[in-house]
Amino acid sequence: MHPSRLADHYHNTLRDDIMYMTYNHEFQTRAPAREPNMKYDPEDPYSKHRRNIPRGGIQIGKTPSPQSTPDNVIRLEKIALHCMVKEATSNRSQLLGAIMAFRALSGETHQGGGNRHRNGIQIVKGRKTEGGWIRPGLPVGVTVEMTGDRMYEFLGSLVNFVLPRLREFNGIKMPFASRSQQTPSGVSGVVSFGLPPQAMALFPQIEVNVDSYPRMYGFHIHFITNAFGQDAQARARALLSGFQIPFARAS
Asked: Residue ranges of region Disordered (predicted)?
């Protein structure tokens, strides 16, 4: 595989800029984290198996961000694609088209290149009964994760060939400025958005033999970074902006 242009862009240019933009100077040493005050005594045998949550509720939205150091500058760790095929609930063969498309988009195969950690295309199965048509163990979609050069190759195709040709795409919708950032999504460092079926045909990997696929599929893209804690999602958006992915404020 040829060297990734976007990977070089991150390591040679974007990484230093992001570190400067997101640096938070702390002139005092952080106090050690306090042990949470749980609702029940974990040593009490009468409450051993109860759901034990901290007093005042779960404080995940107030998780502090890590200290700013050159070693924990935000970076893109993996990209996950997810597609739901409703017709697969009655006919499992309907998943074949989505599997073929995801394999072409990602280049991922099971243990590809001798890497045991590569899972390739995974079948998504229902976990519980929902709406009368999803049942536990029933195949309902496909998903795949990309890392390394394949991740940057997909990102380059998305930025250079797909998004500029989507007429009604103005950018990934951002929440209102007044919305609280102390939420599980706000501290996760993950940015997600969806693309319509017509966008799949714009990827060069699909466009070269688009007639080989039964139809195009809409799917979701999840950009997963190493950021966590307060303002993690804002830092993730800043990173993606450096890769020329546009954002638009919700109106």
From this structure: 35-70
